[in-house]
Amino acid sequence: MTSIAFYHTIDEEEPFAQQWAHDHNVHVECFPFELHEDTLHTIQGFDGISYKQRSAPSDNPDFYRRLAEYGIRQIAIRSAGYDTIDLHAAHQNNIRITNVPSYSPSAVAELTLTHIMRLIRHIPQFDDQGSRHDFSVRGLISREISELTIGIIGVGRIGSTVARIFHALGARVLGNDITENHELDSILTWVSKDDLLAQADVVTMHTYLDSTTRHLIDAHRLAQMKPSAYFVNASRGPVVDTPALIEALQHHRIAGAAIDVLEGEATLFGNTFDADKPLANEAYNTLYAMPNVIITPHIAFFTDIAIKNMTCQSLDDALAIINGGTSPHEIKERN
């Protein structure tokens, strides 16, 4: 029987994985841990891999040669992002990589809406005051969405869903992408990054992560934003230069931020820590202490529909390649 190793399983994924296994007559073994050097031996006897983790399995390209020696010819990533994979090393060892590019754009777009609503209605500040039994409202008047300009950097499946939501709510929507989808012309205006950052009341990020987008938002870009503007990141942590974001917030160069992803999150999000001890991630500690910052632990994807789609699509792709077929979700190495 064909067997697939399903790494870094969370409780919500396992029922979908086991139902898929039953329907396809395939053995799926759900492991709670990630695939790394110290767990590589667990792949022995399996035909394929479904994989979801926030850190690279290894910094050594030889890791992929060793995977190939175990007979592995594919890795099906259960996410849209694939920055944890060394594509060059994988392809050199004839290991094919797939992702799930569209597990649920609505899931991420809805959290983006939630974050933006909380920011513009000053909910973090009201929560902070309420914790001290201070129920005054002075200085915290809000603007309505119909008054706002929403700037979206990265207008793919998720970004376009965000655009549709805010257009429907009456906002002016600006978009910036390396490829302009003119089917969206009726709901947004395409502008340069410079113009978007200068005009937007909210800037929200929905780009992939690669060498061209790493620290795309840096001190220079943050300085282009209005002091009254808010920043939202539900894409990938390293798209933003975190120290630059912290400095912009501390010096009131922007009004606030909401982040679902953070540089260095692999050792933080998804884990539980002693509430009485400080966290090792100083950037998180600094951001968390700010009353105008919202942090969620990389949960934009975490809905029932998205989890089912991520699980089943990754297993479909794994089985297709194991059986000698192809997948429309295969990731090719960029030149």
Rg to the nearest angstrom?
A: 21 Å
**Helical region count?**
11
Shape: globular
Q: What's the story with the biggest beta sheet?
A: 7 strands, parallel
The pLDDT mean sits at 95
What is the CATH domain class of the largest domain? Alpha Beta
User: Oligomer, anyone?
Assistant: single chain
Helical content stands at 25-40%
Query: What's the β-strand tally?
Result: 12
* Strand order, largest beta sheet: 8-7-6-9-10-11-12
Order of helices and strands: EHEEHEHEHHEHEEHEHEHEHEH
Q: What structural class results from the helix and strand content?
A: alpha/beta
CATH architecture group name of the largest domain: 3-Layer(aba) Sandwich
First-residue to last-residue Cα separation = 38 Å
Sheet-strand content, in percent, reads 5-15%
CATH homologous superfamily of the largest domain?
NAD(P)-binding Rossmann-like Domain
Number of domains: 2
Low-confidence stretches: none
User: What's the CATH topology label of the largest domain?
Assistant: Rossmann fold
